[in-house]
Amino acid sequence: MKQIIVSIFLTLLLSGVGFFTLKAYENANSYEAMAQILAHKQNAEELSITQLKKLADALTLGLYEGYDESLEEQRKLMETGEYFKKRALSFTLYTVMTLFLLLGLSFLASRRTQTLFITLAALIVLTGGLLMPIMMMSIHMHMEYLGDVVLMTESKGVAGSIGKLFEGEEYVVGGALLLFSILLPLVKTLGMIFVAIFSQSRWSEGIIRFFKALGKWSMADVFVVATFLVYFSGSKGGASQAEVQAGFYFFLAYVILSILSSLSAEKILTERESSGNASDL
Known about the structure:
Number of strands: 3
Order of helices and strands: HHHHEEHHHHEH
Oligomer: single chain
Strand content: 5-15%
Helix content: over 70%
Number of helices: 9
Structural class: mainly alpha
Number of domains: 1
Strand order of the largest sheet: 2-1-3
């Protein structure tokens, strides 16, 4: 009865992780859209128009309202962008808090249940980490009379960067990022789910030993490689700035959950071997 109750609460917490991840994704995309609009308002052409409106405002002693309207529009865009940014980070925080509750409660469940729910949570945050922007890149230049001109603003996510690397014929870099940041994590996660559900299968032992043999490819190392590849792909020339986005934290959460699910799966194998040795005696 206790295990059933624990499983119900774990299911609710897992649903919460999925819900908060979805909301973080939606708000991160909205913030990205606002950032693109703001960047367009700060390009050379738009800033030139703004300066002309400012001149018209000065010449008409404030009778021309176009300049004030431009400032008000930009202020509203900035406020809207900050609103979506804060919401994305808030839902990211809610996701992390829910994960902590799930991890704590999972220790009251059986080893198989613990492994299953941790791995499913890892799959959810991995999806979020791959689809959400990890960094917001902007390249700008100071121009006389216009001020700070934004040349480019672009969100950098793992999935999007891989596509651009392949488009730019950077097949080696793109292939390495695809393999170690998407394919292997997905295969490993699905493998851990299989182990949790079919722990008595003869395939389970092979799956665990296979991923244990790949232990030297630490997910922490993969995370660093993926982050820096995302950072540098397409970042060429100009004065650039990078802002960490919600996807970074989701990818980091996956790294931690992946390690925990692997440890839990290994304990399933250890317990199975111990019970097998005991039965032989």
